[in-house]
Amino acid sequence: MFQVHAAAIAMPVPAHRHDRHHPPRAKKRGFIHQIIKGIVIMAAVATTLAATQAFAQSGAGAASADTAADGVYDLIVGTYTGGKSEGLYVYRFDSKTGDAQQVSVAKTVNPSYLVVSKDKRFVYAVNELPGDNGPATQRGDVSAFGFDAASGQLTFLDKVSAQGNDPCYLSLSPDGRYLLVANYSVAADPGGSFAVLPVEQDGKLGASVLTVHHEGGGPVKGRQDNAHVHSTVFSPDGRYLFTQDLGTDKLWTYRYTPDGSRGLVSPAEWRYTDVKAGTGPRHLIFGNDGRFAYLTSELSATVSVFAYHDGRLALEQVEKLAEPGFKGAVGAAALHLSPDGKFLYVSNRGDANDISIFAVDARTGKLKRVGRQSSLGKGPREFAIDPSGQWLVVGNQGSDTAYVFRRDQETGLLEPNPKRIDIGSPVDFKFVAP
């Protein structure tokens, strides 16, 4: 059941936390439920601006090909700090050659995921804390930066609490008024959460106005002992919010109603879409025409195809990422469509360390494998395709490298002999037109 509280959020702290690398906490027993906490006091506001599919899917971080006549873009890279990295890096990327030259760096802790505002004036990045070595009492944060695309400079604006541990995903609401952050875990139970942060006129962030906690777990010991919210994605029409929970094997569904008619975010009548137990749903994206959605499941290393209509998802296909007979560790991560929507790319970590390439059937949305490309390193977590569609850049978190592959736009395949970028623990990539 759901409960709304107008009190400050207070969560107990366990002796140790459970995240992607640490021992699990005791599993929460009983049926899965949610508790909505926060303050939802809103006056009526203007009708939400219509959201384009590109903005709903990517937070408007990507630029269209015709906005930069010279084919030169800014490439912002999020990293894990503490090793060779200092924070967020900005590169000037030439789509004619695939060359990337570092322009600037903004020092901030573990900016492992980022989004760019629709007007490209602001960049928001998680501060994924406590991280591997921090105390469970330490909450993660979200940092706001002003961004000058022409010079490639980032200017720190402010930082607010993510209201949970290990924030790992960000998405902007279709109207740009709120930034949503997914927290992989919360010390202690009830597991993962997501928080809704107001975006001010000057780009700064306000404190969370709503925090939604998931409870429950799944059958995989050590990875599904609690809920783990891994992404927050708006539907193409901006009316629904999907939160992918690796711990509960569910895609939770909420209505987004900024006019206050149902509260800001409220559970849909059907509440969630189930996926196969033990698969661990991670990231969701929508196709260019909004009729289909694609999901990575981290624990099973699969990609799934769903038909989409008015807030509901219907499973159509599941494809394994690893080669037939592969016996090593796996870990599905990111997925992105080519700008024309004809090809889907999916990263797989563990011992596989590659990117699967699928052709997309425009009529049915279904996938057909056309290739597989090694990331040439360890831990290819996130990647991005440049706005021209000519290049794919992937980061190897575990080997301090990123590679820029030339992309054949007819076959979808990635050509050998990519360009190399040396950068500490690269994770996320966003292209921005100057």
Automatic annotation (TrEMBL):
Query: One Pfam annotation, family name?
Result: Lactonase
GO biological process terms held by the UniProt record: glucose metabolic process
Query: EC top class, in one word?
Result: hydrolase
Instruction: Print the keywords alphabetically.
Output: Carbohydrate metabolism, Glucose metabolism, Hydrolase, Membrane, Transmembrane, Transmembrane helix
Q: Gene Ontology cellular component?
A: cytosol
- GO MF term set: 6-phosphogluconolactonase activity
Span-the-membrane segments of this chain are 35-56
* The enzyme's E.C. designation: 3.1.1.31
Which Gene3D superfamilies does this one have?
Answer: YVTN repeat-like/Quinoprotein amine dehydrogenase
Q: Which PANTHER family does this one have?
A: 6-PHOSPHOGLUCONOLACTONASE, 6-PHOSPHOGLUCONOLACTONASE-RELATED
Q: Which family does it belong to?
A: Belongs to the cycloisomerase 2 family.
In Swiss-Prot or TrEMBL terms, this protein is called 6-phosphogluconolactonase
Its organism's taxonomic lineage begins at: Bacteria, Pseudomonadati, Pseudomonadota, Betaproteobacteria, Burkholderiales
Q: Which gene encodes it?
A: pgl
